[in-house]
Structures are given as structure tokens and as C-alpha cells.
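Question thread 4412

I'm putting together a teaching handout and wanted feedback from people who do this every day. The idea is simple: show students a protein as raw sequence, then show them the C-alpha cells that encode its fold, then repeat with a second protein so they can compare. Below is the first pair exactly as I plan to print it.
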Amino acid sequence: MLFNLFNQPSEEIQYLGTPYTQDCLDAIGIILQTQIHIEKALLLSCNQAHAYLIKSHGNTYIIRSGFSSGYSGEGPKGLASSLQLLLKHNIEVDEINISEKLMKKINHSSLLDADIEIMLTTKVVRPTNIYEYIYAIYKTTEYQVKNDRYYPTELPYHLIDSRILDLALKFNDDPNRSIFNAFIRLENIVQNRINSDKHSSALFEYAFCSENPPLICKSEDKRASQATGRIFPNIYKAFRNEHAHNEVSKPLKTLMREFLLINELYILESEAIQRS
């Protein structure tokens, strides 16, 4: 009974990825996108199979062995890409050699806390092979610097103003409609707040940019406050009308940036002081 108790798989480990390389690359992208501080990244090598142990503040992740080396193919290419991604984020990667038994436990999600401790205290491979894995495929460490395809394509919900969170949640279904409705909703909010029947860019010109604007963007610097106020009509004129009159055909990431611009208007509006 005691033997079974102390040999239960750890409940502190989060397993990500599958035996497929792309799934493991996507998992690393999620970690890099969501974890503020990566404390340690270990490449776990067993013969020509590779997995990862990644520790962030309060979390331990295991990426299963969807990576490989020593031949040409998706496994080695994925390994090189994963290393470049981590280096792109200024994360130092060390490599350790592990047993076939440990690699099997990784892939079956059955590591013990003691197994993690063993890996964290195992002597790292020196000299390092990290760059050799990269150069074998890409001949450079710069390939991923301008490549963002492994990050999750999702809006950062924790940054979205609560008044348009519902539009953010439906964004992928119809980004054009979400953007257009966000503009319309902001118009209504500002109209009601200053009791005005103006609309479109004229409303924002009056509300934030007139001689004595009803809404003053928070700033002790008058020029900075005026410049911030001009953001409202400028963004409205730059992006709103095309969504009102046409089905805009743009990459999803471009539309996300537009939605985030509108989200910033909501935040600035909420912080604006109403002239008494």
C-alpha cells in the first residue's frame, strides 16, 4: 500500500503535445504566449527522440517526444524550430540524456515527482548540441525571428474591455461584424455619456477634440491629452467605414489588430474625465 502511495504519477505536471511534431510545436507556442516567466527549459533526449521539460513560475510542463534528430524529416525540422522559438524569447535551453524508461513515462503521462527531481539535477550535455540541431536544418538561428505561426491565434481575452468581450468571443466566426458592432456600440456609449445626437467621426471630434471637449483624456500634459483625444476620430475614420460598406477581406491577424485598436478606444473612454 505504501509502495503504491509513493509511486503515483505526479499531479503537479501538465502534459502537452502528442507524438506528432506539429502538436508539440503548438504546445510550446501556447507556453510562450501565456507564461510570463520561464525559469528553466530542458531538452530531454533519448537516442534520437526528444521531449521538453519547461518550468515557469508555479507550473511544470512536459512536452511529449514529438521531436527527433539525426535524419531529414518533420521531427528534426520541428526540433530546430522549437529551439529557435525558445532562443527567440531569450530562454536558455540545456539538454540532458534520459533513459528509455523515463521517455516512456513521459509519453504515458506517468512521471513521478522524483522523476522530475532526477531530470532537474542530471548533468547537462557539454559541449551543447543545441545549435547543431538547428544548423542541421536551417543553417541559422534567425529563421523563427520573424515567424509567428506557432503562437496561438487568439485575442488576449484578459485585455479586452468587458463591454465588448461578447464580440471578442464571437470574433473568429465573423471578425468584420465584431469590428463593426464594436464601433457602433462605442458611438452609443459616447452619445449617451455626453447627451449628444452627433454620430460617426463628428461625434468623436466633438467629444474629444473640440475647443472645450466634454470628455478629457486623463493626462497632466495638455498636449498629450489632446493627442490622445485625436486617436478616437482618426481610428474611426481609418477603419470603421470599410467594415460598414464592404465585406473586408484581410488576414485574420490583421483584423485582430484592428479589434485591439478599438478595444484601446474603449479603455481610453472609460478613463476619460467628463468635463463638469
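The second pair follows. I'd like the answer to focus on this one:
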Amino acid sequence: MRLTICKNYDDVSRIMAERVLTLLEKKPDLVFCLPAGNSPVGMYKELVKAYKEGKADFSSLQTFDMDEYVGLGPEDPQSFIHFMHHHFLDHVNINLDNVRYPDAMAVDLDTELRQYAKEIAHKGLDIAITGIGDDGHIAFNEPGAVQYPETHKVKLDEATRLQNAPAFGNDPEAVPEYAITTGMAEHMKTKNYFVVCSGSRKAPLLQRFFSREELDPQFPVSWLRMHPNVEFIVDEEAAALIPDDIRKKALAGEEL
């Protein structure tokens, strides 16, 4: 496990984009599990910038969306596939035949999700990036007594609906009640895993993660303690409560 502490959100975004581009250069047909939400927006801007400057080629990139709201189609401005097109896909030279996302409006959603999970297992994920939800969730793997291994439908916690309300006119009731999310086994099998965080709101979550050792299904991000290749890229505000011994190792470039 590695921890990189940056000055601010812009630096988090730049360094995360650099990690993606390094992997893409090594493997042009990189399989990328794309995140939505506020955390990766800056990274997508950096990736688009690199493409426009002739420093990146996305023509062979393969993508899977990390999650989606049940009942929202690609034309819905609040859907995550719409988000991906708006912030990234429409601005680079990706082959849209290589873009895969779950059909959140499928009549037989269970069959759709089983097929999506099979495709992920067949391709294998080279890279995934996530933030941390206010309740400790990653993707939409919410706190609970169990965690599911593969892509599945999940009922969103009220805390998550409240956190995502700004995208729905600040009305938590307008946030879909259910979502689709990639599962924990899919995350754990990803070859290169990254967590990005910025701002003081995330500080207690990182403090909890780096201060304890147990795996807690009520704190889903804790499962990443078992991941063989994970890096946290965070800014100073988010890192403010991380124990000093962990910070020192991080600043010295040491594995945690």
C-alpha cells in the first residue's frame, strides 16, 4: 500500500492522471474501470488536456463504468454514462465499441448484471479509481452485514442519497433509491487500484482507515487493506488526521 500526499485537489488530479497515462503507455489497450462523482473530474480534465496536446492516445482503451443509478439511461443528464461522455469520452479518441456500461433500464436487470460481471471477469480490470463516500463506501458498496463480490443492485443508504443530492437539485428524495455497483471481488482483483480524496470532509475517513487494521463490512473501504497494489492519492486537508508515523512513511516514499 502506498500513500501520496499532495498540496491540493489540483495536484491530486494531476498526479492521478499521470498514473493513468503511465499505465496507458505501457498497455495501450488498458482496461479502465471509470469512476463518476466529483473526485475524478479534475483527473478527467488532465487526461483530456494530455490528449489535445498530443501526449496521449486512447484509441485502444477499454472501459467499464464502475456504477450507475437504476432507471437512468444514457440520455439522462444525471446518469453516470452521461457524466463519462461529458467529462471524458466525448473529448478523446476512444473507440466507443470499447466502452461498456450496465444497462440500468434493462427489463431483466439481474441477467444484465450477471452478463456485465462476466465481461469484467473475462477482460480483467487493469485500473480502477474511487473516492470514499461519507459512510465509507467505495463505488456503491454500502456499509452492511455482508459485501457482495460481483456487480449487483444495491439500495442506497440515506447518507449516500444526501451526499449525492446536489446533482439532483439538492433534493435527496430525487436521488434514485437503487443503484448498480461493481462488487468487492472485482475491486480486489483490479491490478492497479487508486483512491483519491481531497478536502477536510474526508479527513476522519482517512484517519479511521489508517488508524485501524480490521476489515469491517460497515466500513467498506477497509477491505482495501487486503489489496496487493493500492495507492491513496490525497491532499493535505484530507490527510490532516492521518497518524504521524504513517505520514512520515508516506513522505519518505515508503510502502505502508
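Top answer:
Good format. For the second protein you could add a caption like this: DSSP finds eight helices and ten strands in the chain. The mean pLDDT is 95.
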